[in-house]
Amino acid sequence: MADQYFSIGRFVAAFGLKGELILRHSLGKGLRTLEVVFLENRKDGFLPYFVEEIRVKGTGEVYMKLEGVDTPEQARLLNQKEVWLREADFSRMAARSAPVSLLGFHLIDGETDLGEVVEVIEQPMQVLCKLFIRGKEVLIPLHKGTMGKLDKDHKRLYVTLPEGLLDVYLGET
Description:
It holds the Pfam family RimM. Residues 8-88 form the RimM N-terminal domain. The strands form three sheets. Strands 1-2-5-4-3-6 form a six-stranded antiparallel barrel. It has a four-stranded mixed β-sheet with strand order 8-7-13-12, with no helix packed on it. It has a three-stranded antiparallel β-sheet with strand order 9-10-11. It is built from three helices and 13 strands; from the N terminus they run E-E-E-E-E-H-E-H-E-E-E-E-E-E-E-H. It has helices spanning 72-78, 87-93, 165-170, and strands at residues 5-15, 20-25, 36-42, 45-58, 61-66, 82-86, 106-109, 112-116, 119-122, 127-133, 136-142, 147-151, 156-159. Strand 4 (45-58) and strand 5 form a beta hairpin. The chain is mainly beta and 173 residues long. The chain has two domains: 5-92, Elongation Factor Tu (Ef-tu), domain 3, CATH 2.40.30; 99-170, SH3 type barrels (Roll).
């Protein structure tokens, strides 16, 4: 079975003279034990970059030094690149309470499996889960009014969606 990858954030800036990068991530905790990250080099193709050093910058940001990236110019080439982890590393690193830990979960509304969460978008007042239903992108808001039971063993989150929400995305009346 092919490895599955999860996006954890992106490099937002080059830093210093030794090729460090600032990684803005959504894992909800430090990444000090991280050994390898992946950058997408083509659709569904990932290149590994081995981590030399990680220093915490602040909440949700770290300074990261990668092997083979030794100058500010090399670091700038990776600026704004999305950073991915293999599923095993993601599961180990993501804080259990971080919204990003819902990646790969299936949203269940009543008896209907809506699909797998492919992206988690954090906003100030709510979290949005992106999934695809019948080939269309759908954003499901998660907050106290929509969230139900979380079944971590079966990777399911039970939700109660507002009437008509899916109709907006799927064009149904």
